[in-house]
Design goal:
The radius of gyration is 19 Å and the shape is globular. It has helices at about 1-25, 30-40, 50-75, 80-85, 120-130, 155-160, 220-225, 240-250, 250-255, and strands spanning about 90-95, 105-110, 140, 145-150, 180, 195, 210-220, 260-269. The chain is an alpha+beta fold. α1 crosses α3 and α3 runs antiparallel to α4.
Length: about 270
């Protein structure tokens, strides 16, 4: 651990130098430079004397992002560094039907953050380990708000998870763009459904108890291409009905909503 901390320290120093170079060559902020410049300035829902402790967590998050990015530039194993620093893991999603077109594929990577939400992160990793998300459709995509997924294509598999509710994790970080969060039906009802926040204006979800368990660390441009043409789900919209997804699975979605983007492979990096 001592050697790792020295390594992270030297990586952080190199990263600060590379950041200065990056700023001099960047006219339009990219996702990477945005991560640098925001430095998690608005992560926390609570506004009391816990803020001092949470502020230090914010600084650790910022240092971690710098270390991971520079580790990648140096050819190091980012998965090893991710696990060492935050206890989290890197998970790669391969997506089909981007923009609603068969044959258009892409990938994005999620890093779990058990230091943010240990209970949620553990469940998410368990679902990945069991290949739960393979074949899952992103059935609710509302541009500028969220992209929701996590109902298994096999109703029998989904039924096994329906009653396995999790206790809530306290909200430690805000619902900003790229964070991955469990959907709920009220307190302590998280099971398998999740969403990716698509903008930085979702902080109102913090006080409703939605606790981010990880974040997209690469490929948000792919997430932005999830097919959104069906709109909000039934009954309030013309999109997929969650009850029918639960009951009939992918047979229903493939027939009635064939353009939905879906995960063809999900695995630990």
């Amino acid at each position: 651990h001592h050697a790792m901390m020295k390594l992270v320290g030297s990586i952080t120093f190199l990263a600060l130098q590379s950041m200065q170079l990056a700023y001099s060559f960047t006219a339009v902020p990219s996702i990477r430079t945005t991560l640098y410049s925001q430095v998690h300035t608005s992560l926390f829902a609570k506004e009391n004397d816990e803020d001092v402790e949470l502020g230090s967590l914010s600084r650790r998050d910022a240092a971690y992002q710098v270390a991971v990015t520079t580790a990648a530039m140096a050819g190091m194993s980012t998965s090893a560094l991710a696990e060492e620093v935050s206890g989290g893991r890197l998970i790669e999603f391969t997506v089909n039907n981007l923009d609603g077109e068969e044959g258009k594929t892409g990938t994005f990577v999620v890093q779990t953050r058990p230091d943010w939400a240990p209970i949620g992160a553990e469940r998410f990793e368990t679902l990945v380990d069991k290949a739960f998300f393979d074949g899952c459709r992103i059935f609710r995509v509302l541009p500028g708000f969220v992209a929701q997924f996590g109902i298994n294509g096999d109703p029998e598999v989904q039924a096994k998870w329906r009653s396995q509710n999790l206790r809530d994790d306290p909200v430690k970080v805000t619902n900003k763009r790229g964070t991955v969060v469990f959907a709920t039906a009220g307190p302590n009802t998280r099971t398998t459904q999740l969403f990716v926040n698509l903008n930085d204006r979702n902080s109102f979800l913090d006080r409703q108890g939605f606790s981010p368990l990880g974040e997209v660390v690469s490929g948000m441009d792919v997430v932005d291409r999830f097919f959104a043409g069906y709109g909000e789900g039934a009954p309030s919209g013309k999109g997929p009905n969650q009850g029918l997804i639960q009951a009939k699975g992918n047979a229903y979605l493939e027939s009635a909503f064939p353009k939905l983007s879906y995960f063809s492979r999900v695995f630990f990096k």
